[in-house]
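Sequence design from tokenized structure. All designs in this work follow the same two-part layout: the structure record, then the generated sequence. An example of the structure record is given first.
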């Protein structure tokens, strides 16, 4: 089977991941890999990561985070886009073991050779989204629909009628 992706410099930000072959819509491209750590371990290791504007941490579930800084694969280099061609899906383990949940990167549409793979990071911070934080988490996807930040609005709870 030919290698479908390659990591290299990106015009969006730093490294990126690019298709080497055609990838059809719905295809599983790769699984986000890294060391499994608890939220408390992540807090001890990285503190308030909202201040860096850069992270290789992926929230897996209520107990665990995938830390792609350790044992990570090419998935950590996939950049954010406001109009992505991929999505990251958390797949829960059938036996209910949260340590065995995983994150799959899947194509949202057909992807052509040479095209950069992107997904919406969906970053929601607990803190107030100040102009400084929005600049720190700036989006550089270049899409006409770009929101200029990787930060997503906080989800609000709606009252039941």
């Amino acid at each position: 089977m030919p290698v479908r992706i390659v990591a290299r410099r990106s015009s969006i930000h730093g490294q990126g991941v690019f298709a080497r072959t055609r990838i059809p819509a719905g295809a599983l491209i790769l699984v986000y890999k890294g060391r499994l750590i608890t939220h408390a371990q992540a807090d001890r290791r990285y503190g308030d990561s909202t201040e860096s504007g850069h992270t290789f941490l992926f929230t897996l579930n209520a107990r665990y985070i995938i830390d792609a800084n350790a044992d990570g694969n090419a998935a950590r280099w996939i950049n954010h886009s406001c109009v992505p061609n991929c999505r990251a899906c958390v797949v829960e383990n059938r036996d209910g073991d949260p340590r065995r949940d995983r994150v799959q990167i899947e194509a949202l549409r057909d992807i052509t050779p040479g095209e950069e793979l992107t997904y919406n990071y969906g970053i929601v911070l607990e803190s107030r989204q100040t102009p400084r934080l929005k600049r720190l988490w700036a989006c550089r996807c270049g899409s006409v629909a770009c929101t200029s930040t990787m930060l997503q609005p906080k989800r609000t709870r709606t009252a039941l009628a």
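The first strand starts at residue 5 and ends at 9. We note this feature because it recurs in several other targets discussed in the main text.
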